[in-house]
Design a protein that fits this description.
Layout: E1 2-7, E2 14-15, E3 18-24, H1 28-35, E4 42-44, H2 47-53, E5 58-61, H3 68-77, E6 81-84, H4 92-105, E7 109-111, H5 119-129, E8 136-144, H6 154-157, H7 160-163, H8 171-182, E9 185-191, E10 205-212, E11 217-223, H9 240-245, E12 249-256, E13 259-264, E14 269-277, E15 285-294, H10 299-304, H11 307-319, H12 328-346, E16 352-353
Length: 360
């Protein structure tokens, strides 16, 4: 039976061959409140105490970004399997440190890129892989979301020294999905418009272009200034109509040579379009909607962002002695692209060639 510890998540996960035995969080009140319902789980406010006393086989780390490198390397160096919330670290150097510790450890390292194994991603992979709609040429991703607040976990998200920047937060998931569908990124160029959110130490908007080795172009637009929140948080509803009414939008379009596939993450649904010759014999085409696939029964999170999927699969593979579903080097390469995008923003939109040189 593998002994599992959690930092931040405080999930009481148990399954064939594994069981949660320890929790760690700097918020003692949060620990105490959760421990009332799970008295058999040990609690710690310092990860070093948990590492030395809990005799863990696996640790699941979901602390703020700036803590990841220190905590992950400590557990890997102690011979513990590590499942780590994205990003691996807040810089290329930190990511390299974790990768080097993993290579020495002989243990599993999983990065929580759960979007890549979501129902949406699997369905789009099937559609593109069928060849029915031709070859992939472009990918577009748009996310208009609300501003992180200068309180709670927003305090570390809006500071580059604790978050790593804008791209290592939500966008890194979709950079990873870009790579899943289109292959390797050769270069990236990012431009941010002037900030309007005074409390942000990171850009509140970025438009990034990702140039792939196979000629595919992916474009990503992230903005934090249009999606509103209700004045009374009790009015919040996790429905597409409500979120769209507040200006929230999140979608992805895959353009191929014989059609296109559009994903609406909030509905949730997938539109499939086909190109057909029009007028007949002209050599021109028109775009025809072939069908709309409804995934509302899965719910928003079940469609693209179920955080439990990757975590449970990691635990299963540790029990069975298998490697993680995504090779750690592949996840590390997503981070190299992500931090190249951040570098481009800092350097005024200079096009950056992605450096995949492996750390020593």
């Amino acid at each position: 039976m593998l002994r599992v510890g959690h930092i931040g998540w405080l999930a009481a996960e148990e399954g064939p061959g594994y069981k949660t035995v320890a929790w760690c969080d700097i918020n003692a009140q949060k620990l105490q409140a959760n421990a009332l319902h799970h008295p058999g789980i040990e609690t710690y406010t310092d990860y070093r105490d948990m590492l030395s006393k809990a005799k863990l086989d696996v640790v699941m780390i979901a602390s703020p970004n700036a803590c990841h490198a220190e905590q992950a390397t400590a557990f890997l160096n102690a011979g513990v399997h590590v499942f780590l919330e994205k990003p691996m670290g807040i810089s290329v150097t930190e990511c390299d440190r974790i990768l080097a510790s993993w290579r020495r450890s002989g243990r599993n390292l999983g990065i929580d890129f759960e979007v890549r194994i979501s129902p949406f991603a699997r369905r789009v992979q099937t559609l593109i892989g069928s060849g029915e709609y031709g070859e992939l040429r472009r990918v577009e991703y748009l996310h208009q979301q609300g501003a992180w607040l200068a309180e709670g976990n927003g305090l570390w998200r809006i500071r580059p020294e604790t978050s790593g920047g804008l791209h290592p937060e939500c966008p890194i998931h979709y950079i990873d999905v870009f790579r899943l569908f289109a292959g390797e990124v050769r270069a990236v160029q990012s431009i941010a418009g002037p900030n309007v959110l005074p409390h942000y130490g990171i850009p509140d908007n970025v438009c990034s272009h990702f140039f792939f080795e196979n000629g595919v172009l992916a474009t990503m637009l992230n903005t934090h200034t249009h999606s509103a929140v209700p004045r009374d948080s009790r009015q919040w509803q996790n429905t597409a109509a409500f979120m769209h009414s507040l200006g929230h939008d999140m979608c992805m379009i895959f353009t191929l040579t014989k059609g296109s596939i559009a994903v609406d993450f909030l509905t949730p649904s997938i539109q499939v379009h086909r190109f057909e010759e029009w007028p007949r014999g002209s050599g021109g085409v028109r775009v025809i909607q072939e069908r709309v696939e409804d995934y509302s029964s899965l719910g928003l999170m079940g469609f693209f962002h179920d955080c439990s999927l990757m975590r449970q699969e990691f635990l299963r593979r540790c029990v069975e002695g298998l490697p993680p579903i995504q090779d750690p080097v592949d996840a590390w390469r997503t981070h190299r692209v992500t931090f190249a995008a951040e570098q481009s923003v800092r350097e005024g939109g200079r096009r950056i060639t992605v450096d995949y040189s492996m750390p020593a």
